[in-house]
Design brief:
It is built from 4 helices and 6 strands; from the N terminus they run αβαββαβββα. Helix 2 (56-79) packs across helix 3. It has a 4-stranded antiparallel sheet. Strands 4-5 form a two-stranded antiparallel ribbon. It is an alpha+beta fold.
Length: 139
C-alpha cells in the first residue's frame, strides 16, 4: 500500500517536472492551423433529384438525417451539409472539405421526402459555387 503510494508520488512529480521543462524551453512546438489563401474550405456537390424537385428546407433536413444515420452526430457536425440552391431537378449542397465524401455516400440513403419517393444522384463535386451553378445551367 505504501509502496504503491510512493510510486504514484514519484511518477506525479516526474510528470510535473517534464511538463514544466517542456513549457519553459518550448520543447513541444504548437502551431496554429489556419486556412491559407489558396486553400478551398468548402466543397459543392451537384446532385440530381429524380423524379421531381423538392423545396430546399425539406431536402436539407432529409440529407442531414441521412448523414446522421450513416456517420452519426460527429460526422454530421464535421461535414455540415447545407442545400445552397435548387434549380429544376438539380441542386447544390455545400459541405466542408473534410466531410464531403460522407455526404456523397449518404445521398442514396434518402429514400423519401414527405411520403414521396425520391432518388438523389450525385453528379459532380466542385470547389466553387460559380462552377457548380455553371454545371446545372445557371449563368
Amino acid at each position: 500500500m505504501i509502496g504503491q503510494l510512493l510510486i504514484d508520488v514519484v511518477i506525479f512529480i516526474w510528470l510535473v517536472i517534464l511538463t514544466l521543462y517542456s513549457i519553459r524551453y518550448k520543447v513541444i512546438y504548437f502551431k496554429k492551423l489556419r486556412a491559407g489563401k489558396n486553400v478551398k474550405v468548402k466543397r459543392y456537390i451537384v446532385f440530381e433529384m429524380i423524379p421531381t424537385p423538392f423545396p430546399q428546407a425539406e431536402l436539407e433536413s432529409a440529407i442531414r438525417n441521412a448523414v446522421k444515420e450513416l456517420g452519426g452526430k460527429a460526422w454530421l457536425e464535421i461535414s455540415n451539409p447545407k442545400v445552397i440552391l435548387t434549380y429544376q431537378n438539380y441542386g447544390v449542397i455545400s459541405s466542408t472539405r473534410a466531410g464531403y465524401k460522407i455526404v456523397i455516400a449518404s445521398l442514396p440513403l434518402v429514400k423519401s421526402i414527405n411520403g414521396q419517393e425520391v432518388l438523389l444522384v450525385p453528379r459532380r463535386t466542385t470547389g466553387s459555387l460559380k462552377r457548380a451553378k455553371k454545371l446545372i445551367g445557371i449563368r
